[in-house]
Amino acid sequence: xxxxxxxxxxxxxxxxxxxxxxxxxxxxxxxxxxxxxxxxxxxxxxxxxxxxxxxxxxxxxxxxxxxxxxxxxxxxxxxxxxxxxxxxxxxxxxxxxxxxxxxxxxxxxxxxxxxxxxxxxxxxxxxxxxxxxxxxxxxxxxxxxxxxxxxxxxxxxxxxxxxxxxxxxxxxxxxxxxxxxxxxxxxxxxxxxxxxxxxxxxxxxxxxxxxxxxxxxxxxxxxxxxxxxxxxxxxxxxxxxxxxxxxxxxxxxxxxxxxxxxxxxxxxxxxxxxxxxxxxxxxxxxxxxxxxxxxxxxxxxxxxxxxxxxxxxxxxxxxxxxxxxxxxxxxxxxxxxxxxxxxxxxxxxxxxxxxxxxxxxxxxxxxxxxxxxxxxxxxxxxxxxxxxxxxxxxxxxxxxxxxxxxxxxxxxxxxxxxxxxxxxxxxxxxxxxxxxxxxxxxxx
Length: 444
What we know:
By secondary structure, this protein is of the alpha+beta class. 65% of the residues lie in helices and 7% in strands. The chain folds into two domains: 14-243; 285-441, no CATH class. The protein is built from twelve helices and six strands. Strands 1-6-2-3-4-5 form a six-stranded antiparallel sheet. It is rod-shaped. Residues 243-270 form a coiled coil.
């Protein structure tokens, strides 16, 4: 081959070699790009998996956080309502009024204050990481996915601690509500016990006021906190009514005692005057007249004169024996029907209501009905038939006081059996007994 041909062949080989190198270079570039893409895809998938795993834990914490926060809010609302109810109870001032022991109210105040402190808490916004999990990971680059996953991982521990704190606060609030309810219940029981003691202390109040208070006390301990304030206020008003009625009864009793003492002193003075007059007239005996009768009866209404006349309470009652002694002191004389020779030696007319009634009737002594009380006077003798014992006379007493009243004369008696100086007629007939009747002999 000549030189020219050889040169041309070499040039041709060189050209072929150049084209092959370019192709190889191109192929290498494509392969490198594919490998880089595969690596990037693999890294993104790993970052996405890490993101989803961390986001799932955050989402679970978010749900638990929301549940704990809702439970805490619900318990707090209940506790706040209880605190408000207790505040309303304390406004009544039951302890200051003596309606409940001071220690019971102190316990209630302590439980209330502890509950109120629990209601004062920091309101903290939910962690921002909760919003981050709402992002669409498909729209995030690998670096963003890795950054979010790292943020999620860092937030897990503090967020879990926050959830635990919320749960513990909810339990503490619920426990405080239970303690406050217990304190309220104990307060109500203590108030009911104190009210019962007040009823016992004020037994002289009228029956209507005591019955109303008793009804309130029966239900006091059963009230829930939301209604206890109203119940305690009603209890307060009922106690005030009982105390007022008791004070009125005590004032009335004091006035009656003073009047009784004055009447006794007057009767004794009259008896002394009668005795002096009888002595001047040459008569014998302890005295005569109504003054002597009443002085004797008042002297022996509680201090029985058993040495002279005995005591018949163990054999049916001493009421007629006592009436007869008064008539004798008044100046009456014994006879074959009406007499006593001492303890255990008396006639029927001296000790029996039925026989005394027959004896006084046989003497022609006027008999007054309950519609003639304006004619009754001190020293007259009343004969009674208790309705609940059936037909027949049961009791006799001597009139000890007659005074005006809004519904007619108020007649009282001095009596044995149920010993008393001023047993009021209507109360005796219709309160102490039932369906009873009586008439009164107008002793001349």
